[in-house]
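JOB MANIFEST
job_type = single_chain_structure
chain_count = 1
residues = 200
[input]
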Amino acid sequence: MASRFFVEKVWGKNFSELPFHNIPNLGIRLWAKLFYFFWNTMTGIFDELLAHPEFCQDKAWRRLNYLAGQVLLHEGEAAEELFVVESGLLRVSGKISLPEHRSLQAGFKDMGPGEWFGETALLGFEVRRSATVSGVESGQVLAVNANFLLTFLSNHSELGQRFFQLLFAEQCQRLQMANERIEKLLAWGMESRGISQHLT
């Protein structure tokens, strides 16, 4: 990113080790912190990947357009790519089985620009998609080849470390959100069936 190289040019230090408290100008210090935190987000890492000469288009990634209503991923299909939303709006949904052989397609989450999905492809051993992703509004995504990405990150350990740290943090956040939804659903079910009144 230009901001990263600008800060390194001005202070002659590695951006990740920059002592922000030593920057004399408050305004520049705030901008440097802003750029630093952006650099240490998954969006910032993907910006670095796309700018790297070894991470070339068609071999490492491709850009896809999608329409509203179009399905990008089907639940149960093989996972070979992960995706970054560039524009538009996508919905993650899954099939829920009901009594009497019925089912419904329930929406779990909507995703906009900067968000990413399909990271199960990084597990690499015949993983299947755990949900369906379809367009709510037309837009564009980056599709990244998972095997190429793993090899690239293995050869660029500093970037790989930051990538997997952020991946782990994102998974923890998603797990926490899932737990909260399960707790709310459990409470609603107990209340609707009159079970909660028997609890102390």
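[summary]
The radius of gyration is 21 Å.
Residues 2-39 form one domain.
exit_status = 0
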